Amino acid sequence: GRRRYLVEGARLGFHQYRYDSGKSLGYLDADAEQEKDRARYRARQIDERFLERVFETPVTEMWYPEPALLLEYRVIDEVIGRERIAGASE
User: Which of 13, 15, 49, 77 has its CA 20 to 30 A from that of 58?
Assistant: First the structure.
């Protein structure tokens, strides 16, 4: 979609990419995939400071930015209440 929403109380987590497996996946290059996604984020005009933090966060950790930061860096467009979700039940 064009607009990105975060429901009150929800969290988005981010970290850099890495592929660790005993199996060889010659077609998978985690660094290349990360750069493709970085370009997608840039195309959406997400702030470069945000991208740096995302891709500096080790894969063994998770960064959960506050909703205000997600709004500031244009990752989301709005924080909404659960009642605005179509078909949501209590």
Answer: 77
